[in-house]
């Protein structure tokens, strides 16, 4: 189940907004599809994210994939733990497996993100489409 | 049509994630690749290898035929021993790599890669010219591997055979849980362990008995995902990735498997020439500085100029770094050489290392059975 209070992107990232800061991670569904994560490449603090654009790479035994920015803005913090323990994303995708914190450039962009219910519906559709 | 192994239903019941491999539906993982990998290294793992090919050669002149087919020398294959060898074409390219079991006076059993079974069978039939009886037994035979430090203890509970006498690359006919098996101390993990060849209809019974007996020892079923990371940590070449019909055993650093003094065999002339004139590329193992994984096809370079290409790669669960096999120009094929791997348009540092990446724990010499 997707935690309440978070916003979700169709590309399977979540955003937890507090004032103008947003914590970003990937969903349980996303990490489950990737399988055991072995490596993540993250942007540096200060980098500018653009909504919908790739901001990093994630490798698992099975696949290589990318992270997409749920909103635009400047990176103000990255989860350094993931460099040595990227499996935290598998173990705790909504908690210790967070990826970075972004300074939200335009709160209006958040309107386009999905609610937990709508995201679950979206995942269901994706699953059915195979 | 995808083929299924005799253990297919068991995999589904265990909740395995299935993939297509070499025309077969095979388990990729049951729970998690690193977890399964760790089980095989620390306790034991059980592998469905029913997709691998079994080809039997029988009849007069079969020794000569087999000697023609492979680059290694069967002259020293005493009864009860297994031999690893490449099988080459006339250019010295590796058609397949296989295990030869001397199963009888005029009989050999070849265990070959699943991807190549049909091709190998056709090739061998052609070379035999009707003299030997060549049979593809893949459908009626199944292969199960039990690997890991606890393998001997687990198997001991199911057989009367004295396993401590059975050392690396030896085999015997043994009853395991009442099932007739061709039992060898072989494997593809670098751990101590066994491979059991048996009639396919008995495979589910034996699998279940092994899994149940092994449970208290931490035995887990292992999918193809961890099978690949286990073999890669040992530097074992995978046909189709690290070796193929365009690579020779010398290029693949399998010199020990080529016996140029054994008499005639297919590929001999080309290999002799290569030995004299030198090779154009050589297989090496390398380790990344970070956790990033090299993958097949990525370029290898030396501070600028390209020197070769990756043929296999993964994150190593044991070393917690990216590791890979690849080919480079022979002049650079030395341990400690710093290289870079081009990954998604950027160069990542790596170092050529000696193979295997990890020390093997196979049982080479006889020794008394140790206590638990």
Task: Please give a structural write-up.
The complex is a heterodimer of chains A (130) and B (372). Chain A has four helices and nine strands. Chain A has 130 residues and is α+β, with helices and mostly antiparallel strands. Chain A has a single domain (7-106), classed as RNA polymerase II/Efflux pump adaptor protein, barrel-sandwich hybrid domain (OB fold (Dihydrolipoamide Acetyltransferase, E2P), Beta Barrel), CATH 2.40.50.100. In chain A, the strands form two sheets. In chain A, strands 1-2-3-9-8-5 form a six-stranded antiparallel sheet. Chain A has a three-stranded antiparallel sheet with strand order 4-6-7. The radius of gyration of chain A is 14 Å and the shape is globular. Chain A starts with 6 loop residues before the first strand and ends with a helix. The relative contact order of chain A is 0.24. With 372 residues, chain B is α+β, with helices and mostly antiparallel strands. Chain B has three domains: 3-52 and 139-233, Gyrase A, domain 2 (2-Layer Sandwich), CATH 3.30.1360.120; 54-136, Alpha-Beta Plaits (2-Layer Sandwich), CATH 3.30.70; 281-353, Aminomethyltransferase beta-barrel domains (Elongation Factor Tu (Ef-tu), domain 3). Helix content of chain B is 20%, strand content 34%. Chain B contains eight helices and 20 strands. Chain B has a six-stranded mixed sheet with strand order 11-12-13-10-4-14. Chain B has a six-stranded antiparallel barrel with strand order 15-18-17-16-19-20. Chain B is globular. Classes of the chains: A alpha+beta (130), B alpha+beta (372). Chain A binds chain B through residues 35-36, 38-39, 41, 57, 59, 61-62, 64, 86-87, and chain B through 28-29, 32-35, 225, 229, 290-293, 295, 314-315, 322, 344.
Give a short summary of the structure.
The complex is a heterodimer of chains A (130) and B (372). With 130 residues, chain A is an alpha+beta fold. Chain A is built from 4 helices and 9 strands, in the order βββαβββββααβα.
């Amino acid at each position: 189940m997707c935690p309440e209070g978070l916003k979700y992107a169709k590309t399977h990232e979540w955003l937890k907004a507090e004032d103008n800061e947003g914590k970003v991670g990937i969903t349980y569904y996303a990490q489950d599809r990737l399988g055991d994560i072995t490596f993540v490449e993250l942007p540096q603090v200060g980098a500018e994210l653009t909504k919908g654009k790739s901001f990093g790479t994630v490798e698992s035994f099975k696949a290589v994939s990318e992270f997409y920015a749920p909103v635009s803005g400047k990176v103000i913090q990255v989860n350094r733990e993931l460099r040595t323990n990227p499996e935290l994303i598998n173990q705790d995708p909504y908690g210790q497996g967070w990826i970075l914190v972004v300074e939200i450039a335009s709160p209006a962009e958040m309107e386009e993100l999905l609610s937990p219910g709508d995201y679950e519906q979206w995942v269901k559709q994706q699953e059915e489409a195979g | 049509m995808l083929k299924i192994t005799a253990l297919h239903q068991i995999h589904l019941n265990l909740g395995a994630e299935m993939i297509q491999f070499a025309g077969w539906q095979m388990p990729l993982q049951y729970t998690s690749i690193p977890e399964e990998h760790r089980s095989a290294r620390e306790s034991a793992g059980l592998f469905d290898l029913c997709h691998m090919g079994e080809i039997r050669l029988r009849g007069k002149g079969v020794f000569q035929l087999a000697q023609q087919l492979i680059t290694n020398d069967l002259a020293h294959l005493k009864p009860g021993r297994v031999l690893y060898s490449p099988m080459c074409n006339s250019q010295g390219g590796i058609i397949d790599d296989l295990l030869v079991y001397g199963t009888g006076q005029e009989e050999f059993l070849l265990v070959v890669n699943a991807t190549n079974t049909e091709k190998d069978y056709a090739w061998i039939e052609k070379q035999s010219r009707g003299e030997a009886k060549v049979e593809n037994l893949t459908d009626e035979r199944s292969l199960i591997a039990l690997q890991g430090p606890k393998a001997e203890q687990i198997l001991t509970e199911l057989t009367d055979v004295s396993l401590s006498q059975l050392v690396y690359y030896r085999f015997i006919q043994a009853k395991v849980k009442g099932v007739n098996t061709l039992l060898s101390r072989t494997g593809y993990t670098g751990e101590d362990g066994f491979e059991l060849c048996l009639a396919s209809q008995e495979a589910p019974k034996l699998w279940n008995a092994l899994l149940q007996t092994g449970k208290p020892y931490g035995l887990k079923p292992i999918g193809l995902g961890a099978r690949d990371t286990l073999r890669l940590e040992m530097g074992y070449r995978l046909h189709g990735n690290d070796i193929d019909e365009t690579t020779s055993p010398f290029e693949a650093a399998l010199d020990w498997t080529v016996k140029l003094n054994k008499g005639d065999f297919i590929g001999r002339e080309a290999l002799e020439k290569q030995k004299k004139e030198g090779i154009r590329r050589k297989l090496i193992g390398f380790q990344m500085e970070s956790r990033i994984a090299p993958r097949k096809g990525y370029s290898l370079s030396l501070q600028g100029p390209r020197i070769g290409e990756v043929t296999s790669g993964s994150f190593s669960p044991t070393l917690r770094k990216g590791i890979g096999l690849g080919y480079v120009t022979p002049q650079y094929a030395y341990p400690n050489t710093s290289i870079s791997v081009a990954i998604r348009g950027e160069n990542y540092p790596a170092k050529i290392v000696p193979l295997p990446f990890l020390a093997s724990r196979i049982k080479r010499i006889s020794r008394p059975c140790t206590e638990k």
